[in-house]
Amino acid sequence: MKRILIAGAALLVLSACATKPDPEVEVVERPVVEEPRPVFEAPKDVLPPVAQQPDTFEVDPNLPTPGSIDDFAYQSGGEPRVFFGYDQYDLSAEARDVLRRQANWLNVYTNSTAIVEGHADERGTREYNLALGARRADSVKAFLVSQGVAPNRLRTISYGKERPIDGRPSADGWARNRNSLTNVRLGSIS
Amino acid sequence: MTRITRILPMLLGWLLLLTFSTSAHAQLEIDITKGNLDPVQIAVPDFLATTQAERELGEKVSAVIRADLERSGLFKALDPASFLETQTNIDYKPTFADWRVIKADALVSGRIKTESDSRVLVEFRLWDVFAGQQLKGVRFATTPDNWRRTAHKASDAIYEALTGESGYFDSRIVFIDEKGPKINRTKRLAIMDQDGDSPVYLLGGSDLVLTPRFSPNSQTIVYMSYENDNPHIYLLDIETGRRELLGDFPGMTFAPRFSPKGDKLILSMARRGNSDIYLMDLRTRSTTRLTTDPAIDVSASFAPDGRKIVFNSDRGSSPQIYQMDADGKNVKRISFGKGRYSAPVWSPRGDKIAFVRSQKGKFGIGVMDVDGKNERMLTESYLDESPTWSPNGRVILFSRDNRGSKNGSEVWSVDLTGQNLRRVETPGQASDPAWSPLLP
Asked: How many CB pairs under 8 A join A and B?
């Protein structure tokens, strides 16, 4: 895999999961960003993180190419999905955290677009779940927009219960299937 | 004596009604509203024929009639090996004593007659064995290759003569054929005869398709497709194969159903995450929004008189069944039992609403009166859904998915009474069945 060692300042802003500082790499102060008002109320006892990202950056040859679709997944915490409760479409603190990182990436790589997919588990009838998936996708889109992503870069689609990622007919399987996937593309929305 | 002890409970229960009290003859009649306590024993000998070709046709026609009637659960088709009389001419009265001995309640004696290379006559007489009376005589003129539909039409005529209601055998079922495991499943629009025969694909299968529904008065289907990653609804003319995307809507359109006259569609559209119900005029293509609630409003279904609409909404926090006027006014909730309700479908007879109820991790098909009263659950499994009514409103087909089943989704049928639960043969995994009206 071809590595790009030149890391722009913008890239540093969105880096995640640095393990230890690398003296070879220039450390750039992250710009002060005023966080937009969240569209969904956070639970009262959970405060937003003081700083969104570690402000150091390390070029690890095992990391995906910055700006790639793999990189987006990596920056989202491995898989660009957020998960929901049964018949719910509100975003948990954890989901908002993942989505903030997605928004940061999208705000850096502005030539990218995303299709936000809403998914449901099989514990509901087909048409109701299509509507539920639409709500979930819209929750995610609205949050990303609140984080500065232009609405015309995001398109939503509901798959209802038609595209499960976990075939287990159990609570664990259903929980995995209640999600929204931010499906990033480099280029315009088709 | 044995004959009387056998007939008596049927008389008292549901089977035989003396419709002409002045007549000396009893009239064999089935009351299908009571549920199947004891099926009518019906003898359907192979239709008489003179040539070998006619004989083969006669055997096939009789076999399809026997199978149709048996599947209804209202009849028991007696084994032809038990028959004592071999009729040689259906224009003479049968020897009723011979049929009474084998406990036949009804007898169908039929004949195949070739008129020309392209035309055969299929005719039969339906006899009330106990009364020694002809109940019906029917003659169909058809082409030899149309024998199967002719047999279904004969079954419908027999069903109608004995129950007083129109049949449902000469009809088709459109459904979604499924292949592959849950996490990698392909779905394809298909159609088959009501008895599972002659399944054919209607579309290529490259796009995800869902929820096909029949027009009440033409061979047209409306369904949802993810063609071009754009979930919208399409019309498909089964005869011509002509397909048409309906409307250029900004949001997903789904959950379509025809109006009773077939000139309008009721559907849901999701805009900014909110699903509402719209009415589309198929001639002008204009749409009218019927619901404006921020809740989920889906699965709308018209009453057969076109005046009311039943639909699914979670406006009261959990999904329940609501009813409104055809213009969207006078919304009221009609489901009040325990659990979550969805997928309501108005019966073509107008007297019942079928629905899905989930409770304690199970999903079942139920029916209720149109005001929500007299709720009755008919089935239950890990996942029963997508109910659809037979053209006469007496049978419900639905999808069933058993927990962890390797068979995947299956199509099942159950009577309105909750009796006669049975699996419907499909070529493979199948879901979202939708029953056609009776064929013309």
From this structure: 104
Predicted confidence (pLDDT) per residue in A96-130, tens digit: 999 999 999 999 999 999 999 999 999 999 999 99
A143 touches chain B (CB under 8 A): no
Nearest chain B residue to A155 by CA distance is: B251
Facing residue for A157 by CB, picked from B182, B229, B361: B229
What confidence tens digit (pLDDT) does each residue in B303-328 have? Answer: 999 999 999 999 999 999 999 999 99
Tell me the average pLDDT of chain B.
Answer: 91
> Strand B243-245 relative to strand B429-435: parallel, antiparallel, unpaired?
unpaired
Q: Given B163, B197, B228, which residue is the final one in a domain?
A: B163
Q: Is the CB of B268 inside 8 Å of chain A's CB atoms? A: yes
First to last CA, chain A: 28
Q: Do B147 and B191 have their domain in common?
A: no
Which residues of chain A are within 8 Å of residue B181 when distances are taken between CB atoms? 167
Residue range of the domain that includes B388:
172-435
A45: pLDDT strictly greater than 90 = no
Structural domain ending residue among the three candidates B163, B186, B212: B163
